[in-house]
Write a structure and sequence with these properties.
This protein is an alpha/beta fold and 212 residues long. The chain has one domain: Maf protein (Alpha-Beta Complex), CATH 3.90.950. Helices cover 31% and strands 26% of the residues. Strands 1, 2, 3, 4, 5, 6 and 7 form a seven-stranded mixed β-sheet that branches. The protein starts with a strand and ends in a 19-residue tail after the last helix. GO terms for molecular function: nucleoside triphosphate diphosphatase activity. It catalyses: a ribonucleoside 5'-triphosphate + H2O = a ribonucleoside 5'-phosphate + diphosphate + H(+); a 2'-deoxyribonucleoside 5'-triphosphate + H2O = a 2'-deoxyribonucleoside 5'-phosphate + diphosphate + H(+). It is found in: Cytoplasm.
Length: 212
């Protein structure tokens, strides 16, 4: 089966590749504006679903659904102080956010949309993974230096765990992959529920020795 990742995220792509998969990545085109009174769970799951539907339309337009396909889309948000946060967008926002987050906890919510296309039929599911994080008590200089890298501006919540932001996460409760924006255990379970085994997506048969 072919695996299509509806995302431009290098971190999500790297996570899937590290797990032995070889997805085709296609950038979705959607409006990510939150709706009034929409919870963080509702927002993350809705955006994940819309990303998937956007790329599904692209696949149809390009006539790329002539083989069995799994389509995966995700959207990640940070819940902190009862509010929902996406990408900071500016250095000033990064600094302001980290000044509040340092030494405290936040919750990462990632909506996962999975669609299985085979035999002309589509089965789909949208679910959420949740991970609780504890942030280090950064100094003002550390916050300024981290903001200066430019990394946190463009990532959900304003931090990473697999790059420059790794030293600033002191504790994780839940799936660590979810902090990167894609929960491998949840994706595996969704696939099983939709009748697809994880190894059906592998480019090599199960049991084949893979050398790094």
């Amino acid at each position: 089966m072919q695996l299509v990742l509806a995302s431009s995220s290098r971190a999500r792509l790297a996570t899937l590749r590290a797990a032995g998969l070889q997805p085709v990545a296609i950038r979705p085109e959607i409006d990510e504006t939150a709706r009034i009174d929409e919870s963080v769970t509702e927002l993350a799951c809705r955006l994940a679903r819309q990303k998937g539907e956007s790329v599904l339309r692209i696949l149809r337009e390009r006539d790329l659904l002539d083989r069995e396909t799994v389509l995966l889309a995700c959207d990640t948000m940070l819940e902190f102080e009862g509010r929902t946060y996406g990408k900071p967008g500016t250095k000033a926002s990064v600094i302001s956010r980290w000044m509040r987050m340092r030494g405290r906890q936040g919750v990462v919510h990632t909506g996962h949309y999975v669609a299985v296309i085979r035999g002309g039929r589509i089965t789909e599911s949208t679910r959420e993974a949740v991970t609780v994080l504890s942030f280090a008590d950064l100094t003002e200089q550390e916050i300024a230096d981290y903001a200066a890298t430019g990394e946190p501006e463009a990532v959900a919540g304003g931090f990473t765990i697999d790059s420059f932001g790794g030293p600033f996460i002191t504790r994780i409760e839940g799936d660590p992959h979810n902090v990167v924006g894609l929960s491998l255990p949840l994706v595996r379970q969704i696939l099983l529920d939709l009748g697809v085994a994880w190894f059906d997506l592998w480019p090599v048969p199960p049991g084949t020795q893979v050398r790094g």
